[in-house]
Amino acid sequence: MNGMLAIKGIDVYYDDVQVVLDVSFSVSRGEIVALIGANGAGKSTILKSISGLIRASKGEIIFDSRPVHTLEAYHLIDVGIAHVPEARRLFVEMTVEENLDMGSLKGDARKHRAKTREMVYELFPRLRERRRQLTGTLSGGEQQMVAIGRGLMSKPALIMFDEPSLGLAPILVREIFAVIKKIRSEGMTVLIVEQNVKQTLAIADRAYVLENGQIVMEGTGESLLNNEHVKKAYLGV
Amino acid sequence: MTGPQVEVLLQTLISGLLLGGLYALIGIGMTLIMGVMKIINLAHGELMMVGMYIAYGLFTFFHIDPYLSVIIAAPLLFILGVLLQKYLINPVMKVDSILPENQVILTVGIGMVLANLATIFFSSDYRSTPVDYATKAWYLSDVWKSSPIELSLSFPWTVSFLFSLVITAGLWFFLTKTDTGKSIRATAQDNDAALLMGVHVEKMRVITFGLGSALVGAAGCLFIPIYYLYPDLGGQFTLIAFVITILGGLGSTVGAIVGGIVLGVFESLTSTYIGMGWAPVGRFMIFVAALIFIPGGITSLFRRKRLGR
Q: What pTM was estimated for this model as a whole?
């Protein structure tokens, strides 16, 4: 397999508390890989350490065969990694269009801004209608669309989603997952962190189960859906 | 109200508005820095004082008009702001300390040093730039012969006000239409999200401090034709900027414009109807009232409606 992202034995601390313990995993080009687990298992922390918002105290993160854990956070977008953060983290006092523009500040993404924006509007027609509106005035679902669109604006090779379905109505959750599948079919690689285990495993090629900061299980999405432990702990069966 | 009373009221409102426009420019500089760095720059007035001495020096030694000196003083203040942020404030921000307000205390220190340097170089004498248009004014009766009341518009006050408008409009364009401007706003709204977008947040802080300094330096040049100058004048303007920032809402540029104008008009009303010396009292009445009744500032009233909070 063509390894694109490799996490090699990272430890992450918040002050004195260790939240990620010796975690290793990999994502291959074109895959949808999911990290699943309960609240506080360390999923978001792993994404944050990939995008440089938090530093791993031990271990390596390799992307496209180069180490990226030493890069400043603002350079991660340059190597082709986009992070759609938990709780969306939009610029609420900017319009939809301004938020999208913020996703394409540099290099090629800046040159193709208008074209990529069109693509985002085609993916989410509702955003085109609301493009002059402040994102703080949008509904939760629309805000999630802006967050995803903003992530796509950098034309990333790898896009990471942190809890994209959080707080959304079931119909919107399905829409968001459908969009994520579509994003992969257009050639991007996806790493997704979710508590909505059932729908996530349904679209994921592979997944890792995280408990107390450690990976306790891995497998294809399908095999984990049928796994007894996963069923009991995460699917409520 | 009788004719003369209306005349006094209108004249007071006009001077208040003109003063308010200049106050807005001072306030915008402080609120920008506040928004991006989450610190109050208590050397703000002293930076304005530096701008005024630059304009004074250029006028006295090179006969350069104070309005022209804006284009020299603003870049110089930008550089000064960048240096202060890069080599003094940023290193202090990175230090973990028991006092999170360390940087604010540092700005007080910077203000003191600037004021004392001004005393050393220029002595504590009062200075001014005696421009030949200092007392020039336009009168309502010049354009409307049969006007029942007489109003005047001071030439330097009006020009300063217009300059302030142009600079504010330029800043608005920069903040809303350019990628750097948007990055500055993004940094103020969500630091981490800005990092994820590839914004070099630390660089934005440096640019913002430079920009805030340049704005207040420009305000200094606009103030000197209508004001006098001495080394300790900064403290008073730091307080004015602070009141405007609180009144308008921390970090809001629109708020600073509204706050500046409200403060200008209010001060003008107090000096007309209560007495010249009472303007600072009025200023603090407004400050306390804002803290008690609209703790989020004027913009919070609009924002609650817009964002449905």
A: 0.92
